Amino acid sequence: CRQSAPLAIGASMRRSARAGARTVVGVAQDALASMPRARGGDASMAVARPRATHRRRHELSNLRGASSSSPTRVRDTTVCVIGAGPTGLALSMLLSKLGVASVTLERAHAPTTHPQAHFINTRSMEALGALGMRDAIAKQSPPLRTWREFRYVTSLVHGVVLGRVDQFDGAEHAGSATSPTAPTHFSQHRLAKEMLTRARAMHDDGDSGVLTGARVDDVRVSDDGVHVRARVKASEDASEAETLTVRAEYCVVAEGANSETRDRLGIQMRGERALQHLINVHFTSSALAVDLSADPAMLYFVFNPDAVAVVVAHDLSRGEFVAQIPYLPPVQQLSDFTPSVCERMLRSAIGWKDASKVLDILGIRAWTMSAEVSEKFIENDRVFLAGDAAHRFPPAGGFGMNTGIQDAHNLAWKLAAVTRGISSPELLRTYETERRPVALRNTALSVENFKGVLKIPNAIGLPPMAADVLRDAVSALPLLVPSALRKNILEAGLAIGRAQCGSLLTADNPIGVARRAAVREMCEDPNGTLKLQFPKEDVGFSYESADANGQAKLYEPGTLRVGVRVPHAWVNTISGRTSTIDLVDADMAEPRMTVFASGFDANAKDAVTTSSRSAFPMQVIHILDQNCDDSLSKNNVIDIDGTWALKTRTFGDKVLVLVRPDGHVAFIGSNVDELENVIRSSFHATAN
């Protein structure tokens, strides 16, 4: 076998803050060149807090416990995060891991208990693995058999099954050969609770690192930082609020789709604001869970004369569900959907005839399905938009929460590199050039998926356009027509439409037979209706320059290419089997590059030895042939099944693969000088 010598790249890294190269980032070079410059485990699992190496200390370590005669408090930090949903909490944890001081402000006093997103895709599970959460989430997730299917039915219980789609094509496991982990079905409200616990445990300041009950009402940017003002209440019922001013170098706005801060900054959203209006009904029912347990599914699309709805089985073990019911404002309003009205609709959707069976409605909310992306992700070089504050998608495909977590994964290491003096601030501008094309790509796909969802109601005689036409006609009635009468007219028209889901769908007449056959055919076609998995969009998106439509380019999962997530390959290490993806994250306590080296012989003249000329921390890992088990060391690992050799062989016998802290490939080649140049120019690294 070929014995590899330790590469000296990255040895003796010094964290100088000299001005770095001002060249554009390699994988987004074209986009940056044209971009104008702006002015100005379980909940109980133990978590060790990383020791901070670069902190701006704040004046108050615990806002709740401090007392002061002054009505205004001031807190200094490096990064202020607005919003403690999955995006904000992921960012808080990543910053803590990388040794960057932060304060997260959340207007709610506690995480929501209302389910929202419920699918964590592969790339997000990889990112959460970097935070030590992957195993805990996997253990708490339901088994695949309970959520592998989407089903089209006339009712959940005892109804006609019009079609069913196995999203995993009969596979026993949700994972694939392109990742060390797998997607999972785990509700956002449960994930956020886990993340809040862990974010506070990882933070140097514990609970006060993530402040709840803090509503931001002003953000001001200056040349030397950002001032964020918030009104902080000790509880929801408190009559008085303290004023807190957070002084930070940077601010990240991650407070959700209806971001007040984004609106105050005057940043516009671009796209379709209202694709559909829905009522979400959160309910629990152990009786329904029992009824469904023998043959469960994740989503039930229900069509019958009394109800048209989508029911999401969030967690059968807890009997937790959400029903999504279309409604038509301004004729219909949230107040029309009282608990009694919703229960009647739910029982019709379920198909229960037994009134003794119990369901408990826990919450009723209205929401608008949008497809919008912010016109920009960065304001004045100091404020960044992330998560739903930057993009909001239809839920079809499950990209909303996942895209937000991956925003945080991209931005955190860049903030750490700049605030620690490793890179110049120019690096931060790549956040927009890399993440906005991904958001545009995911928006387009989500809209396409939503249109795919509409194929089946169209096929059974329920064209959604007809409901909109009816709504518009009722809205156009003279003002003297009472509101109650308008609602009755609308409901009568909708009832006529839903009648298409009676005998014209279920009976063995020519129309019913043809409609059921059309639904079955669409469900059997891989592209016939809504899908759950999109491997290219999940792990194959690239941070190279966007395509002609401004969208991220896509590649097959596992492609070794600059800009794409590094391929997964199983390797043997001194600690056992692991993935190349996990090696990038292993023990990372500061933003660090990883070099995977293969084919370099310790005894040959071409052995790679060089001193680092940049301040960017780096680890070098030699990936050795399969028959080199006796060569294992901290920096030598074994390519277990030859996957890495297969990925690199087209690049030559000696290959260096430079991987960024977020797992994306930045360089492929064999010349060490070229690799060093990429670090200095592409990442604006300061010189040693």
Walk me through this protein's architecture.
The chain has 688 residues and is an alpha/beta fold. The chain contains 19 helices and 27 strands. The strands form five sheets. The protein has an eight-stranded mixed β-sheet with strand order 6-5-14-15-16-13-17-20. Strands 22-21-25-24-23-26-27 form a seven-stranded mixed β-sheet. The chain has a six-stranded mixed β-sheet with strand order 8-3-2-12-19-18. 28% of the residues lie in helices and 23% in strands.
Topology (elements, then pairings):
Blueprint: H1 29-33, E1 72-76, E2 79-82, H2 86-97, E3 102-106, E4 119-120, H3 122-129, H4 134-140, E5 149-153, E6 161-166, E7 184-185, H5 188-202, E8 210-212, E9 214-222, E10 225-232, E11 242-248, E12 250-253, H6 260-264, E13 269-284, H7 286-292, E14 299-304, E15 307-315, E16 320-326, H8 339-350, E17 360-374, E18 378-379, E19 383-385, E20 391-392, H9 400-419, H10 430-453, H11 455-459, H12 464-475, H13 483-498, H14 503-506, H15 510-524, H16 535-539, E21 570-573, E22 576-579, H17 580-585, E23 593-598, E24 618-624, E25 636-639, H18 643-648, E26 655-659, E27 665-669, H19 672-682
Parallel strand pairs: 1-11, 2-3, 2-12, 3-8, 5-14, 12-19, 23-24, 24-25
Antiparallel strand pairs: 4-7, 5-6, 9-10, 10-11, 13-16, 13-17, 14-15, 15-16, 17-20, 18-19, 21-22, 21-25, 23-26, 26-27
